[in-house]
Design goal:
Helix content is 40%, strand content 23%. The chain contains 8 helices and 12 strands. Helix 1 (5-31) runs antiparallel to helix 2 (38-60) and helix 4 packs across helix 8. It is globular.
Amino acid sequence: MIGSANLNIMIKAARKAGKSLVKDFREVENLQVSVKGAGDFVTKADIAAEKILKEELLGARPTYGWLAEESDEIPGQDPTRRWIVDPLDGTTNFLHGLPHWAISIALEHKGKIVAGVIFDASKDEMYFAEKGAGAWMNETRIRVSGRHRMIESIFATGLPFAGRADLPETLKDLARLLPATAGVRRWGAASLDMAYVATGRYEGFWERRLKSWDLAAGIILVQEAGGLVQGLNPDDNIVESGEVICANEPIFETFAKVIRG
């Protein structure tokens, strides 16, 4: 597929940063067995990847705004467009030598996500989508799952850790959802959870207390793959609220009703 100039810039930037992270990941696989060293190393790898992405994206589009995990926000001369970037989603997986992490890049225009790239560099799976052009994984067009029954469906979420206050809500979600489904997965990278909904590996995903860069690219990916995406409160702006629910169309209404209680 040949995308727009902006999409090609995003894919090129993701591949360049991905190459750097894969090299560092091989080192982490050795470091993570020691008591000290891996945490600081991963922080450096994360910052180095963001530096590459910033140079590539703002170098190509210097007037766009910038919002990313590891650096200060830049308003940009063009107030209508900004990059929303997570250089390493799934940092804890990366730190532990687990090959499930991704680079996430979204382009926002006038408050709407118009293009997104999620790169699972360790598996060389490049997910990308652009408004009106469908969703893709490498050279293959992707679509959400066609399953209609909750009991046959797998869902994904994040589980609260380190004393986060949303644990009671999440336990209530699971108590309502688990009896009605084929299972729930927690793999530790929200961007890839949404990419997996887009490619039909999961039927749906929900999570609270995410950051804009965790989910921005996933929004357009799921939408262009034929799925539905809303906030847990349907009227919320997802990028601002950090709360999301998405699924294929046949299951969305039932799934959303269960999660919303």
